[in-house]
Hints:
Order of helices and strands: HEHEHEEEEHHHEEEHHHEH
Shape: globular
Number of domains: 3
Mean pLDDT: 89
Strand content: 15-25%
CATH architecture of the largest domain: 2-Layer Sandwich
Low-confidence stretches: none
Radius of gyration: 22 Å
Largest sheet: 5 strands, mixed
Distance between the termini: 37 Å
Amino acid sequence: MDIQNEIWQDIFGRRQFGLDFSDTKLVLTDSNLTVPTIETSVREILFETYGFHSLQLASAPGLVAEYYYEKTQIPHSLIIDSGHSFTHILPCLSGKICVERSMRIDVGGKIMTNFLRDKLTYSQYDLRQETKVVNEMKEDVCYFAKDFRQEMEIFKKNNPVINYYLPDYNLIRRGQIKQSLDSESFKDLSTISLGVERFVLPETIFFPEIIDCDQIGLKEAINRTCNGVFNYNLFGRYMLKNIIVFGGNASIPGLKERL
Protein backbone atom coordinates (compact mmCIF):
# COMPACT_ATOMS: atom_id res chain seq x y z
CA MET A 1 0.00 0.00 0.00
CA ASP A 2 2.96 2.36 0.52
CA ILE A 3 3.73 2.63 -3.20
CA GLN A 4 0.05 3.00 -4.05
CA ASN A 5 -0.30 5.75 -1.46
CA GLU A 6 2.64 7.63 -3.01
CA ILE A 7 0.84 7.56 -6.35
CA TRP A 8 -2.34 8.88 -4.75
CA GLN A 9 -0.37 11.62 -2.99
CA ASP A 10 0.90 12.77 -6.37
CA ILE A 11 -2.50 12.57 -8.07
CA PHE A 12 -4.77 13.77 -5.29
CA GLY A 13 -2.31 15.74 -3.18
CA ARG A 14 -0.12 17.70 -5.57
CA ARG A 15 -2.26 17.91 -8.69
CA GLN A 16 -5.76 17.85 -7.19
CA PHE A 17 -7.26 18.68 -10.60
CA GLY A 18 -9.04 21.65 -9.04
CA LEU A 19 -11.61 19.35 -7.45
CA ASP A 20 -13.41 19.55 -4.15
CA PHE A 21 -13.02 15.94 -3.02
CA SER A 22 -15.84 16.25 -0.50
CA ASP A 23 -18.16 16.66 -3.49
CA THR A 24 -16.40 14.12 -5.74
CA LYS A 25 -17.38 10.51 -6.43
CA LEU A 26 -14.48 8.18 -7.23
CA VAL A 27 -14.52 4.95 -9.26
CA LEU A 28 -11.42 2.85 -8.60
CA THR A 29 -10.59 -0.39 -10.38
CA ASP A 30 -8.91 -3.19 -8.48
CA SER A 31 -8.02 -6.82 -9.14
CA ASN A 32 -10.61 -9.58 -9.26
CA LEU A 33 -9.51 -11.19 -6.01
CA THR A 34 -8.49 -8.30 -3.78
CA VAL A 35 -7.58 -9.28 -0.23
CA PRO A 36 -10.26 -7.83 2.13
CA THR A 37 -7.67 -6.09 4.34
CA ILE A 38 -6.32 -4.23 1.30
CA GLU A 39 -9.82 -3.13 0.32
CA THR A 40 -10.38 -1.86 3.87
CA SER A 41 -7.10 0.09 3.78
CA VAL A 42 -8.01 1.61 0.41
CA ARG A 43 -11.35 2.85 1.73
CA GLU A 44 -9.77 4.28 4.88
CA ILE A 45 -7.13 6.22 2.95
CA LEU A 46 -9.48 7.60 0.32
CA PHE A 47 -12.16 8.65 2.79
CA GLU A 48 -10.09 9.72 5.81
CA THR A 49 -7.03 11.19 4.08
CA TYR A 50 -8.58 12.71 0.97
CA GLY A 51 -12.22 12.99 2.01
CA PHE A 52 -14.00 11.72 -1.10
CA HIS A 53 -17.78 11.92 -1.09
CA SER A 54 -18.23 8.30 -2.20
CA LEU A 55 -16.26 5.43 -3.66
CA GLN A 56 -17.04 2.53 -5.97
CA LEU A 57 -14.48 -0.28 -6.06
CA ALA A 58 -14.82 -2.53 -9.09
CA SER A 59 -12.61 -4.73 -11.21
CA ALA A 60 -12.02 -3.72 -14.82
CA PRO A 61 -13.46 -7.04 -16.09
CA GLY A 62 -16.50 -6.47 -13.89
CA LEU A 63 -17.15 -3.11 -15.54
CA VAL A 64 -16.65 -4.62 -18.99
CA ALA A 65 -19.07 -7.45 -18.18
CA GLU A 66 -21.74 -5.08 -16.94
CA TYR A 67 -21.37 -2.78 -19.96
CA TYR A 68 -21.53 -5.69 -22.42
CA TYR A 69 -24.65 -7.10 -20.78
CA GLU A 70 -26.46 -3.75 -20.70
CA LYS A 71 -25.52 -3.05 -24.31
CA THR A 72 -26.39 -6.45 -25.83
CA GLN A 73 -28.68 -8.12 -23.26
CA ILE A 74 -26.76 -11.34 -23.98
CA PRO A 75 -26.91 -13.08 -20.59
CA HIS A 76 -23.82 -15.27 -20.61
CA SER A 77 -20.31 -14.45 -21.82
CA LEU A 78 -16.67 -15.21 -21.17
CA ILE A 79 -14.18 -12.46 -20.44
CA ILE A 80 -10.47 -12.83 -21.14
CA ASP A 81 -8.40 -10.15 -19.44
CA SER A 82 -4.82 -10.46 -20.68
CA GLY A 83 -2.62 -7.72 -19.32
CA HIS A 84 0.83 -6.97 -17.94
CA SER A 85 1.31 -9.77 -15.42
CA PHE A 86 -1.37 -12.39 -16.05
CA THR A 87 -4.28 -13.62 -18.15
CA HIS A 88 -7.63 -14.10 -16.40
CA ILE A 89 -10.47 -16.20 -17.81
CA LEU A 90 -13.72 -15.08 -16.17
CA PRO A 91 -17.23 -16.48 -16.72
CA CYS A 92 -19.98 -13.89 -16.72
CA LEU A 93 -23.61 -14.63 -15.85
CA SER A 94 -26.18 -11.89 -16.48
CA GLY A 95 -23.56 -9.16 -16.36
CA LYS A 96 -21.92 -10.40 -13.16
CA ILE A 97 -18.56 -12.13 -13.00
CA CYS A 98 -18.50 -15.52 -11.34
CA VAL A 99 -15.12 -15.06 -9.66
CA GLU A 100 -15.09 -18.43 -7.91
CA ARG A 101 -15.17 -20.17 -11.32
CA SER A 102 -12.46 -18.02 -12.89
CA MET A 103 -8.96 -19.12 -13.85
CA ARG A 104 -5.60 -17.39 -14.01
CA ILE A 105 -2.58 -18.02 -16.23
CA ASP A 106 0.64 -16.38 -15.06
CA VAL A 107 1.55 -15.25 -18.56
CA GLY A 108 1.13 -11.63 -19.59
CA GLY A 109 2.87 -8.87 -21.47
CA LYS A 110 5.70 -8.52 -18.96
CA ILE A 111 6.93 -12.10 -19.18
CA MET A 112 6.69 -12.02 -22.98
CA THR A 113 8.72 -8.81 -23.16
CA ASN A 114 11.36 -10.20 -20.81
CA PHE A 115 11.58 -13.42 -22.82
CA LEU A 116 12.10 -11.49 -26.06
CA ARG A 117 14.63 -9.16 -24.43
CA ASP A 118 16.71 -12.05 -23.10
CA LYS A 119 16.61 -13.95 -26.40
CA LEU A 120 17.69 -10.94 -28.45
CA THR A 121 20.38 -10.03 -25.92
CA TYR A 122 21.83 -13.53 -26.24
CA SER A 123 21.64 -13.71 -30.04
CA GLN A 124 22.00 -10.17 -31.40
CA TYR A 125 22.23 -7.06 -29.25
CA ASP A 126 22.53 -6.26 -25.55
CA LEU A 127 19.05 -5.03 -24.62
CA ARG A 128 19.17 -5.75 -20.90
CA GLN A 129 18.65 -2.08 -20.07
CA GLU A 130 16.12 -1.49 -22.85
CA THR A 131 12.97 -3.21 -21.60
CA LYS A 132 10.77 -0.32 -22.76
CA VAL A 133 12.24 -0.50 -26.28
CA VAL A 134 11.71 -4.27 -26.41
CA ASN A 135 8.13 -3.87 -25.21
CA GLU A 136 7.44 -1.39 -28.02
CA MET A 137 9.12 -3.77 -30.46
CA LYS A 138 6.79 -6.55 -29.30
CA GLU A 139 3.78 -4.29 -29.82
CA ASP A 140 4.95 -3.33 -33.33
CA VAL A 141 5.95 -6.69 -34.82
CA CYS A 142 4.30 -9.60 -32.99
CA TYR A 143 1.11 -11.40 -33.99
CA PHE A 144 -0.87 -14.52 -33.13
CA ALA A 145 -0.66 -17.21 -35.79
CA LYS A 146 -4.06 -18.50 -36.89
CA ASP A 147 -2.49 -21.96 -37.16
CA PHE A 148 0.83 -22.19 -35.32
CA ARG A 149 2.11 -25.34 -37.01
CA GLN A 150 1.22 -24.05 -40.46
CA GLU A 151 2.90 -20.73 -39.69
CA MET A 152 6.03 -22.56 -38.58
CA GLU A 153 6.13 -24.56 -41.83
CA ILE A 154 5.81 -21.36 -43.84
CA PHE A 155 8.66 -19.85 -41.88
CA LYS A 156 10.89 -22.88 -42.46
CA LYS A 157 10.33 -22.66 -46.22
CA ASN A 158 10.54 -18.90 -46.72
CA ASN A 159 12.37 -17.67 -43.62
CA PRO A 160 10.64 -14.26 -43.66
CA VAL A 161 12.58 -11.78 -41.54
CA ILE A 162 11.92 -8.13 -40.82
CA ASN A 163 14.42 -5.58 -39.56
CA TYR A 164 13.57 -3.20 -36.76
CA TYR A 165 15.31 0.11 -36.12
CA LEU A 166 16.34 0.76 -32.54
CA PRO A 167 15.73 4.35 -31.42
CA ASP A 168 18.73 6.66 -31.15
CA TYR A 169 16.57 9.40 -29.53
CA ASN A 170 17.81 11.82 -32.17
CA LEU A 171 16.39 10.72 -35.52
CA ILE A 172 13.72 8.52 -33.97
CA ARG A 173 12.49 8.34 -30.40
CA ARG A 174 10.64 5.05 -30.83
CA GLY A 175 11.77 1.96 -32.70
CA GLN A 176 10.12 1.18 -36.01
CA ILE A 177 10.05 -1.46 -38.74
CA LYS A 178 12.56 -0.90 -41.52
CA GLN A 179 10.96 -0.03 -44.86
CA SER A 180 12.43 0.03 -48.36
CA LEU A 181 11.71 3.74 -48.78
CA ASP A 182 13.23 4.87 -45.48
CA SER A 183 15.30 8.02 -45.37
CA GLU A 184 19.00 7.68 -46.17
CA SER A 185 19.70 9.17 -42.75
CA PHE A 186 18.42 5.95 -41.16
CA LYS A 187 21.29 3.84 -42.53
CA ASP A 188 23.43 4.37 -39.42
CA LEU A 189 20.72 3.27 -36.99
CA SER A 190 21.16 -0.04 -35.19
CA THR A 191 18.73 -2.76 -36.30
CA ILE A 192 17.37 -6.00 -34.90
CA SER A 193 16.30 -8.90 -37.14
CA LEU A 194 13.07 -10.65 -36.17
CA GLY A 195 11.71 -13.83 -37.65
CA VAL A 196 10.07 -16.71 -35.85
CA GLU A 197 9.97 -14.65 -32.63
CA ARG A 198 7.13 -12.60 -34.05
CA PHE A 199 4.58 -15.39 -33.64
CA VAL A 200 6.31 -17.72 -31.17
CA LEU A 201 6.32 -15.03 -28.47
CA PRO A 202 2.51 -14.52 -28.30
CA GLU A 203 2.10 -18.31 -28.51
CA THR A 204 3.29 -18.48 -24.89
CA ILE A 205 -0.26 -17.57 -23.81
CA PHE A 206 -1.52 -20.76 -25.44
CA PHE A 207 1.54 -22.84 -24.54
CA PRO A 208 3.25 -21.48 -21.39
CA GLU A 209 5.75 -24.35 -21.49
CA ILE A 210 7.57 -22.40 -24.22
CA ILE A 211 8.91 -20.19 -21.43
CA ASP A 212 9.18 -23.02 -18.89
CA CYS A 213 5.95 -22.04 -17.14
CA ASP A 214 4.27 -25.16 -15.77
CA GLN A 215 0.65 -24.13 -16.35
CA ILE A 216 -2.15 -24.88 -18.76
CA GLY A 217 -2.59 -22.61 -21.76
CA LEU A 218 -5.43 -20.32 -22.75
CA LYS A 219 -7.39 -22.86 -24.80
CA GLU A 220 -7.43 -25.43 -22.00
CA ALA A 221 -8.23 -22.74 -19.42
CA ILE A 222 -11.23 -21.61 -21.48
CA ASN A 223 -12.52 -25.17 -21.76
CA ARG A 224 -12.11 -25.84 -18.05
CA THR A 225 -13.80 -22.58 -17.13
CA CYS A 226 -16.83 -23.18 -19.34
CA ASN A 227 -17.14 -26.81 -18.25
CA GLY A 228 -16.94 -25.77 -14.61
CA VAL A 229 -19.80 -23.28 -14.67
CA PHE A 230 -22.68 -25.14 -13.01
CA ASN A 231 -24.38 -26.49 -16.12
CA TYR A 232 -22.45 -26.51 -19.38
CA ASN A 233 -25.54 -26.91 -21.57
CA LEU A 234 -27.26 -23.94 -19.93
CA PHE A 235 -24.28 -21.61 -19.56
CA GLY A 236 -20.90 -22.85 -20.78
CA ARG A 237 -21.66 -23.42 -24.45
CA TYR A 238 -23.18 -19.95 -24.73
CA MET A 239 -20.09 -18.40 -23.21
CA LEU A 240 -17.96 -19.89 -25.98
CA LYS A 241 -20.08 -17.95 -28.49
CA ASN A 242 -19.63 -14.66 -26.61
CA ILE A 243 -15.97 -14.17 -25.76
CA ILE A 244 -14.83 -10.68 -24.83
CA VAL A 245 -11.09 -10.05 -24.98
CA PHE A 246 -9.41 -6.98 -23.52
CA GLY A 247 -6.17 -5.90 -21.91
CA GLY A 248 -2.86 -4.95 -23.49
CA ASN A 249 -2.30 -8.31 -25.18
CA ALA A 250 -5.68 -8.08 -26.91
CA SER A 251 -4.12 -5.45 -29.17
CA ILE A 252 -1.66 -8.00 -30.58
CA PRO A 253 -3.09 -8.86 -34.03
CA GLY A 254 -4.68 -12.25 -34.51
CA LEU A 255 -5.85 -13.12 -31.01
CA LYS A 256 -9.57 -12.79 -31.66
CA GLU A 257 -9.28 -14.73 -34.91
CA ARG A 258 -7.31 -17.47 -33.15
CA LEU A 259 -10.02 -17.86 -30.52
